[in-house]
Amino acid sequence: MIEKERLQTKINEMITYFPWYRDYLSSMEPDDLLRLPLITREILEKHYYHQDFNPAWKIYQTSGTSSRKRKKIVYSKEDDQEYLDKKVHIYARFLQDKPIRTAMSDMGTGHAANTAMEVFKSVGLICEDIPYHLPVQDHVKLLKQFRPDCLYTMPSILESVLSATDHPEQFGIQKVILVGEVASAQWQNKVASRLRIDRKEIMDTYGSIEIGTIAYYSHEHGCYLFVEGLVPEGIRAEELGLDEDLLREDERILALTSFSRKTFPAVRFVTYDVVRGFKPIHVAGKMVPSFKSLVKRVGTEWKHGEKISFYDIEEAAFRYLDKATIWIQVDHNKLLVWIDSPYITDFIRKQIQVDIQDQIPEIGIMIRNGILDEIQVNVVTDPKQFQTDRVKKKVIHHKQWERH
């Protein structure tokens, strides 16, 4: 239970930063977090993503929205410091059991990439980074030259690097910190084997540009633990107006409240990430919220190196097709786009694939340089294949449109 005074302070702060929030409150003095509105994608698109912000704040742009504009998410100086402090605390604790002196960041673009050097220098390490626009063979070359004790990267980038060399053990990596994408236990075991380290030397972390670091995997407890200062909730699909069949009985959509984030409306913010095994556990004499695994994302946004939305995909396809039905699937962090249209040809399919990849320029650059897998665009030959129970569970989003 959150203290009423602390909750009221947070609500007052929200109204100060975001006056529109007042219109969504049923009471100016709620006595329970659950009485507050969920901050959904629709609310953020209407009030936050495209507003004008204080020029002193840092602005990060990510995937597109229904307005065809890329989202803007901001950090004040105070927010940035809090973001850094959390990472430094978690990473330093993970690295303390080995004589780690050097780190290398191979992170693509975005907030995590931009702050990597500062984070590891604050931990006390010598740090280098690999520019995201370099070809994958240059990533391999730089890793062999620098031989970092710790590698900071995303699963999709690490997968490409490992595929580009026969002897990744020559990198000399002792620890790996993962961010940005789902990293299954099976995949981590494979990576540990190729690097010739124990899996406990790999720490998977979960975060978002909106909140920062959210949780990290604890090998001691066999689950992900939420960072301090966050209040997580597990939301059922029907609470968001979604089909209840989207989730298994042990799955919930994650909503978060942050008492430290200032310049984002982080009170019951709906992440649209689905976690499994959400429950509190005993850690060092107190109850800490946890989850077993991060399984998927529902809605209109996915991660392929960087965030890409359904609107980005729709805009690319709409340049060539007057009528179509599309499905999106995610398979081991690989994005698959399926299109059913009477007008599609192989030439158009290839053009749509190129255009989708270039909707977010950073994604296109990393794909061309072999750092990310291509976003595959496929033609649907039998629409019934998406109506079976087996395939339906894999479908993330489906939409039909027609040009008028």
TrEMBL record:
Entry-linked SUPFAM superfamilies: Acetyl-CoA synthetase-like
Keyword annotations from UniProtKB, A to Z: Ligase
Keyword match Ligase: yes
GO molecular function: ligase activity
Key word DNA-binding present: no
PANTHER family: BLR5969 PROTEIN (PTHR43845:SF1)
Protein name as catalogued: Phenylacetate-CoA ligase
Organism of derivation: Baia soyae
Taxonomic path: Bacteria, Bacillati, Bacillota, Bacilli, Bacillales
